Amino acid sequence: MEHPDTQPAIVLVEPQLGENIGMAARAMANFGLASLRLVNPRDGWPSEKARAAASRADSVIDSAIVFAAPADAVGDMNFIVATTARQRDGFKPVLSPVEAAREMRARAGAGQRCAILFGREKFGLFNDEVALADAIVTFPVDPDFSSLNIAQAVLLMSYEWMKSGLAAETDTVFRGVDVAPARREALLSLIDWLETALDERGYFRPADKKPKMLDNLRSVLTRPGFSQPELAVVRGVLASLDAFHPRQNKAPGEGRTKGTGA
Amino acid sequence: MEHPDTQPAIVLVEPQLGENIGMAARAMANFGLASLRLVNPRDGWPSEKARAAASRADSVIDSAIVFAAPADAVGDMNFIVATTARQRDGFKPVLSPVEAAREMRARAGAGQRCAILFGREKFGLFNDEVALADAIVTFPVDPDFSSLNIAQAVLLMSYEWMKSGLAAETDTVFRGVDVAPARREALLSLIDWLETALDERGYFRPADKKPKMLDNLRSVLTRPGFSQPELAVVRGVLASLDAFHPRQNKAPGEGRTKGTGA
User: Fold this and answer.
1) Is the peptide bond before A93 cis (omega within 30 degrees of 0)?
2) Touching check for B261 and chain A: CB below 8 Å?
3) DSSP B29-74
4) Which backbone phi and psi does A205 adopt, to 5 degrees?
5) What average pLDDT score do residues A246-250 get?
6) For residue B32, what is the nearest residue in chain A, using CA coordinates?
């Protein structure tokens, strides 16, 4: 994990509910953030409700620092952004979460300490608190339903911070098994075998349609780009159907389907 | 808002807590999603706890549809992704939220209906449920703390869906006032005026340092790229200091600072 000093601090200004502080801490932990600052939490600190809602993100809760005023909470910071859902008067640049995360990532890389301000559940940040920030961050929400829960807002910024540190924004923690298509000969061999098995059952009827039917069959089996292990599954299934289907030109199976039906 | 049929449906499989359903609905509404499907919610449906937690996202709650099994919930869908924090065996591609949103956006544009599956609070999705999906989505979380709350997971996917529909992923609902730098003559005129005011106070001392000091002053005032309204603020502040400072070569002011101090 990154050193906390190279990460943005999450600053919650006068949060009202311990549950929200806890859910914010959990969201931070999900994306590797450790530094939580609380300005004058309404119900005091520490908070058992916060700890319960943090769902084992105890290290974030334990290391949270309480301040009396927003200016104190960001005094040691070099670059500060304020989250808000409302347009504000003034001269501040407005950033999307993606831009804000990239900007902070670049500044952190240059040794600057960054903080993200989040406002109260009901009122957000006051103008004089927004004024502390270098820039505003706002979320691309539905304008008709723009009020984000505070923990959700913390989550989105934490998520974008994590993404800004990935080599590619499309990186994930794990990747699927490599599904490179098998060597084409494996597929062709399967199709050949299948053609024979189907021929024996009279699948290709009328006979003059066979080339077209075979083309279709090849297309259907080619398009998925089956990997070698997938082809093995397909072949196993087809072979199983083949083996247990009572056919005229084979000795009757010893198996379960003996006697009855088609 | 987009027509719901062109949006992905959010499918919660056996959600346990009404509060989580409600918070998920709120997150959907924040990012303009309307179609919520519930598979066998543990505490029944409708749920007053869900409605309370939805925080006025009533339309999402009211239009939620309940299904008995995951296969029923996605029966009318063309493309399905399953969210999971764990690596799974099998042949499914693994997508980041960004990739999944782009893929669904492209398919929705081609008339395909898409769904996103979310698992239970404690266990996630079972393997046979993941098997219903075309692809897996996983979040770029801290591997040491990878368990996302269900509403948080819904939020992230809803957010990425919204972003995938923006002309640029850095779009926001509102933008700051345009802070184009003022015409340079406005800045130069301010600097000229300031030079005179400072000269009168003997600021440029010793005299041979004046050119360097003036260069610095020009640099400091140029770098911010002040807009015309910002320059007006700066000029007002400086003019105010100038007017009310008791100076030798001016008649004493009539104002408040009369008499006392420097």
Assistant:
1) no
2) no
3) HHTT---EEEES-TT-SS-HHHHHHHTT-HHHHHT-EEESSHHHHT
4) -130, 140
5) 48
6) A142
ipTM exceeding the 0.85 mark: no
Pairwise CA distance, residues A154 & B86, whole Å: 23
The backbone region for B261, taken as left when phi is positive above 0, alpha when psi lies in -120 to 50, beta otherwise, is left
Q: Do B142 and A90 touch (CB under 8 A)?
A: no
Domains and CATH numbers, chain A: 4-164 (3.40.1280.10), 176-262 (no CATH)
CA B13 – CA B69 distance, rounded (Å): 8
Give the ranges where B131-201 is alpha helix by DSSP (H): 150-164, 184-200
- Nearest chain A residue to B94 by CA distance is A176
Q: Exposed/middle/buried for A18, CB within 10 Å: 0-12, 13-18, 19+?
A: buried
Per the CB < 8 Å rule, is A173 touching B229? no
Give the separation between CA B157 and CA B118, rounded to whole angstroms.
10
Nearest beta carbon to residue A31 from set B31, B91, B141: B141
pTM of structure:
0.78
For the record, the structure tokens of A224 come out as 């998925």
Q: How far, in Å, CA of B135 to CA of B116, rounded? A: 10
Quick one: DSSP state of residue B115? E
Name the one residue in this structure whose structure tokens are 């290391």: A63
Q: Which residues contact B169 (CB under 8 A, 6 or more apart)?
A: A96, A98, B163
Round to whole Å and give the CA distance between B38 and B21: 9
Per-residue pLDDT at B255 exceeds 80: no
- Do the Cβ atoms of B21 and B159 come closer than 8 Å? no
Which run of H or E residues covers position A221?
A: helix A210-222
Q: Which residue from B209, B219, B98 is spatially nearest to B162, judged by alpha carbons?
A: B98
Query: What are A242's two structure tokens?
Result: 């083949």
**From the centroid of its chain, how far is CA A145?**
23
Put residue A260 in one of left, alpha, beta given phi > 0 → left and psi -120 to 50 → alpha: beta
CA-nearest residue of chain A to B56? A145
Is B91 within 8 Å of A23 when comparing Cβ atoms?
A: no
Query: Nearest CA to CA, how far is B91 from chain A (Å)?
Result: 7
> How many angstroms separate the CA atoms of A101 and A112, rounded?
13
Q: Tens of pLDDT along A135-183?
A: 999 999 998 888 889 999 999 999 999 999 998 877 776 766 556 778 8
The residue among B236, B216, B218 whose CA lies nearest residue B228 is: B236
Neighbours of A238 (CB within 10 A): 15
